[in-house]
Amino acid sequence: MMIALFGGSELVVAGEFTLSSTTIAEGERLRRAQLYSGPDCGGENISPQLSWRGAPEGTRSYALVMHDPDAPKEGGWWHWIVFNIPAGVTDLPEGAGELKAGLIPEATQSRTDFGSPGYGGACPPEGHGDHRYQFKVYALNIEQLPLGNDSSVAEVIALINSSKLAEATLEAKFGR
Questions:
Q1: Residues of the chain with pLDDT under 50
Q2: Fewest CB within 10 angstroms: 11, 89, 139, 175, which?
Q3: What is the DSSP secondary-structure string of 124-152?
Q4: How far is Cα 116 from Cα 48, in angstroms, rounded to an integer?
Q5: CB 108: neighbour CB atoms within 10 A?
Q6: CA distance 36 to 49
């Protein structure tokens, strides 16, 4: 946080809420590791490392999603949904989307458009061009979303939006 003095009074300027990664870069192509492991995509289905900084005051938890708005499905395709990340946590290691990896105990990974919880890598239709894969972290004003790992995408997104203080995005792309 930066503090500036103007005419004897303080103006507090909050830091910008940002999302970054050591695994993927803004605007760049996803690596094979982040692609879906099914027969059509041949990836490793490993979620990227993600870090966030500058959450606003009043943040009580975080939620994180990976979304493909270019998927040929109304509303796009939801690849990863994690919520109830404690306010003191500001990064997830590479591979945290694997259900058996031991993600933060309080956090919940819920169903994606693949039909089950956990990270599902990129796998756009062949010949469909590049798709944008948006990783978004949300600073929330609530400690726990009252949902479980079988909750629908619509339920989770509605509660995230109703509790959101800020959001930060990191966007990568991939096409086949």
A1: 1-14
A2: 11
A3: PPTTS--EEEEEEEEEESSS--S--TT--
A4: 19
A5: 21
A6: 16
